[in-house]
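We modelled each protein-ligand pair independently. The example shown here corresponds to the manganese (II) ion entry; the chain sequence is given first, followed by the ligand as SMILES.
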Amino acid sequence: MGLRGARLPGVVLARMAALLSYATCARESEARSVLFGANTQGAGFSDSARGKDGKPREGFTADFVREADNESPSLTEHLEDGAALFDSGNLPLAGLGVEAQVAAVRARFLELFRAGRRAIGVGGDHHIKYAALAAVSDAFEDCGVIYFDAHPDCALDEKLYFGSILHHAWKLPRVRPDRTSLLALRQVSAREREGLRHWKPGIIHALDFCERGVPGVLDTLCAQLGPVRRVFLSVDLDGLAPHEVPAVEAPYPGGPTLRELLVLLRGLSRRYEIVGMDISEFIPEYDPVKLTALATARLIREVAAL
Ligand SMILES: [Mn+2]
């Protein structure tokens, strides 16, 4: 049960849920990768029919993912165990305003980056993405960003919300559009198109996976990231094909599969240091058979083992 994280200075579990059983590293200071939950709220919901109900999302993604994975435990596909992964529980964000939530998540990512750990934060809504990218900007001179998402989230809007995350991230001193690749893009609003034309990030469309294959996508991705040594991966689960991750706010058909993403990440890890990942957009109440939870757990496990 969730006591391991509570012993660490600066890390307090928000509640006593079970930790991920796969993560068998006993101490954060000995871990290569560190997992934490951050149930950020307040970035709003998509314009999809699912998003329009306007209700706050109660489901706690990280706990739901841990629970599903603990019920169906396994090694990685290449038989690695979780001895290098520490699960530090959830950040206590309940009751905090948006700015305080973002500050807490940013500080946690930064703490892990500075300690040389691969930081894996599970949201929560899109505020986790802005917080993570702010920490990337704080920590690294030369970090590329892979923004895996069906959507570009770059509307030129002064308010920070789900549709303007990258517009704000690109104003940070060291997160740059010419070191960012929008991966699996396929559903763009007219407002977001303005943002794309303004900021000119690298773009890899979902169909590129089909047309060029994963090796071709990897080459383009590396060219778009430029001369960086490190990469951060921001994952909106709706970037994936929705038959594998149906429990998202704004599912959109035609995305790459989890297999394609994992093969791509293996290739990336041979060329770059993968400094961390955030995951957002998971709506547990839409996941009765826990398929999205298992896909998310697998992604966490495989990224931790890279
Ligand atoms: Mn999206």
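The pocket of manganese (II) ion is lined by residues 149-151, 236, 238, 250 (CB under 6 Å).
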